[in-house]
């Protein structure tokens, strides 16, 4: 659930700290008071697009934070784990900062994240249905998503797409083979020659590094020999050498330690230095014996380098890219061998189609079963919303195989007795569409995984007794599904059904318009409902009516 929301310097909000409760919450207020601010701010925290226009005047940035309790939300918990963003607490903390230049930053549990990551986790935490969302209901894709979400088969839908794409890819490959068989054979021969040349080059990047190192050593062998000779001479050639001086120092310290044993440790140190110096001289002599001026070997190494650079120029790559190029050739070669294997690709194509057909059949069965259940639930909700003889039906129309399965999902409805159900867009008027959309959303949400739902003025065009029913539907939804429901509404009948009632208002502070959101007590609720019932002037009659709505 959404536990808290902090809004700083957002549009006409100076600073708001909001704490929310479970159940059904209503947000009301006069037109223009800023009810949309809550949705706008929350949407930004959930990764929606924003720009500098949301930053309050005379400030440098907007700062929005939202805290959600995700206990029991296994989907959100798993997402956090996969993205290494989990915490030891039951809460998740989302933050979005938008600057005056339009740039923004996102954070999850205090860790910087991309806006896409905010959006991804946001989809697992909250759903927002606006007053215009019912228009999307007219799209077949939206109708399919509603049925699939209700059926809980999103995983299977994803698998269907993968199986279809695999079959489609093989199908295209088979068609390409039929059209391009000769060119494929020519390309295979070309790749065979390229692979032969690369094999003759005997190249690997590790070998290339060794060749470069050898070339550097061979090119500087004279300088290395002379330099090592000089080092050995300084260390061990005459009485002034380092070795002789260290030996004299060793003798002196040994004699002194016989006079004061506290120098014994220093004697041990000089003994170690003497041994290490002797080892150094031996290692330098050994290195010197391994060095030789080998012009023949140098010539071979230079020839290898030149061959490599010639090969790179031919194929326009750098030496460090040759291994990758060779691998690409091999992959392409193996693919072409499969493509010209007419029998093999046909077998793979048939197998891919069989896998798709099998999965699509199971998907169709689950959709059909869930459609029957959804038909009944939505029909019942339509009746609650004054469609006395309304009937809802999910039509599963068989189509050619696709990434979405073998059927097109279409919602049908009839709004009066004995009428044949027809597509929603052909039957419903604007006001009816609002009620139909609400019925569908309420019915389908009961199996949704998202724990927080916000309905933004979805009751537009609804009034009278239907408004009271809408309020009860939202209240029941919050109680039955153990979900947190928010409704931004102008209807007192809806607001009266809420467990928590927030009032949005605006006032002038220091010459600026500032929006406020406050949780109302019982007395405040009565006054707000009376305002919603009677307009500007609150009368005893409207007060009494408001009390009756709350009783």
Account of the protein in words:
By secondary structure, this protein is of the alpha/beta class. It has a domain at 1-125 and 453-467 and 485-520: Rossmann fold (3-Layer(aba) Sandwich), CATH 3.40.50. Helices cover 56% and strands 19% of the residues. The strands form 3 sheets. A 6-stranded antiparallel β-sheet has the order 2-1-4-5-6-7. The chain has a 6-stranded mixed β-sheet with strand order 8-12-13-3-14-15. The protein has a 3-stranded antiparallel β-sheet with strand order 9-10-11. Helix 17 (522-534) packs across helix 18. 27% of the residues are buried.
> Helix proportion of residues, in percent?
55-70%
CATH homologous group name of the domain at 1-125 and 453-467 and 485-520: P-loop containing nucleotide triphosphate hydrolases
Could you name the CATH topology of the domain at 1-125 and 453-467 and 485-520? Rossmann fold
Structural class: alpha/beta
Describe the sheet with the most strands: 6 strands, antiparallel
Overview features:
551 residues; alpha/beta; Rossmann fold; 6-stranded antiparallel sheet; 15 strands; 56% helix; 19% strand; flat
How do the strands and helices of this protein lay out in sequence?
Blueprint: E1 2-10, E2 13-19, E3 24-28, H1 35-45, E4 61-69, H2 74-82, E5 91-99, E6 104-108, E7 111-113, H3 115-122, E8 126-130, H4 140-151, H5 154-201, H6 205-219, H7 221-236, H8 242-257, H9 264-290, H10 295-315, H11 322-339, H12 342-384, E9 391-402, E10 405-414, E11 422-423, H13 424-427, H14 430-445, E12 452-456, H15 464-480, E13 484-488, H16 492-495, E14 500-509, E15 512-519, H17 522-534, H18 540-550
Parallel strand pairs: 3-13, 3-14, 8-12, 12-13
Antiparallel strand pairs: 1-2, 1-4, 4-5, 5-6, 6-7, 9-10, 10-11, 14-15
């Amino acid at each position: 659930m959404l536990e808290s929301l902090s809004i700083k310097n957002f549009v006409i909000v100076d600073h708001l700290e909001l704490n929310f409760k479970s159940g059904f919450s209503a947000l009301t207020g006069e037109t223009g008071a800023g009810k949309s601010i809550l949705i706008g701010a929350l949407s930004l925290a959930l990764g929606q697009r924003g720009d500098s226009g949301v930053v309050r005047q005379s400030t440098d940035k907007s700062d929005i934070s939202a805290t959600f309790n995700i206990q029991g939300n296994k989907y959100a918990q798993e997402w956090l784990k996969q993205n290494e963003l989990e915490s030891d607490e039951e809460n998740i903390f989302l933050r979005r900062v938008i600057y005056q230049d339009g740039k923004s930053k996102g954070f999850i549990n205090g860790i910087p994240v991309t806006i896409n990551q905010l959006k991804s986790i946001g989809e697992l935490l909250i759903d927002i249905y606006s007053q215009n969302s019912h228009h999307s209901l007219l799209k077949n894709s939206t109708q399919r998503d509603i049925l699939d979400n209700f059926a809980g088969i999103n995983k299977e839908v994803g698998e269907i797409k993968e199986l279809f794409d695999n079959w489609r890819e093989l199908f295209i490959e088979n068609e390409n083979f039929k059209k391009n068989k000769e060119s494929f054979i020519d390309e295979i021969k070309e790749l065979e020659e390229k692979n032969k040349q690369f094999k003759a080059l005997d190249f690997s990047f590790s070998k290339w590094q060794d060749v470069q190192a050898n070339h550097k050593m061979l090119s500087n062998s004279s300088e290395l020999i002379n330099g090592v000779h000089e080092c050995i001479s300084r260390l061990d050639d005459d009485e002034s050498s380092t070795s002789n001086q260290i030996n004299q120092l060793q003798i002196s310290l040994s004699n002194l330690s016989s006079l004061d044993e506290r120098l014994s440790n220093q004697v041990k140190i000089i003994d170690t230095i003497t041994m290490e110096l002797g080892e150094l001289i031996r290692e330098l002599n050994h290195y010197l014996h391994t060095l030789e001026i080998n012009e023949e070997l140098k010539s071979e190494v230079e020839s290898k380098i030149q061959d490599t650079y010639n090969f790179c120029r031919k194929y326009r790559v750098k030496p460090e890219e040759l291994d990758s190029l060779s691998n690409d050739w091999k992959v392409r070669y193996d693919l072409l061998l499969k493509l010209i294997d007419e029998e093999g690709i046909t077998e793979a194509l048939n197998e891919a189609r069989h896998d798709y057909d099998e999965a699509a059949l199971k998907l169709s069965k689950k959709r059909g079963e869930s459609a029957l259940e959804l038909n009944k639930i939505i029909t019942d909700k339509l009746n609650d919303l004054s469609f006395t003889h309304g009937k809802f039906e999910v039509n599963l129309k068989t189509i050619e195989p696709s990434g979405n399965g073998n059927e097109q999902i279409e919602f049908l409805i009839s709004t009066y007795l004995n009428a044949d159900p027809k597509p929603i867009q052909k039957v419903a008027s604007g006001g009816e569409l609002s009620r139909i959309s609400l019925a569908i959303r309420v019915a389908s949400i009961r199996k949704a995984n998202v724990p927080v739902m916000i309905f933004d003025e979805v009751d537009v065009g609804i009034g009278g007794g239907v408004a009271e029913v809408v309020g009860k539907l939202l209240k029941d939804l919050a109680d039955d599904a153990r979900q947190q429901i928010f409704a931004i509404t102008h209807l007192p009948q809806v607001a009266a059904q809420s467990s928590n009632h927030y009032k949005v208002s605006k006032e002038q502070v220091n010459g600026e318009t500032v929006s406020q959101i406050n949780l109302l007590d019982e007395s405040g609720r009565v006054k707000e409902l009376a305002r919603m019932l009677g307009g500007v002037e609150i009368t005893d009659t409207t007060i009494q009516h408001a009390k009756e709505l709350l009783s």
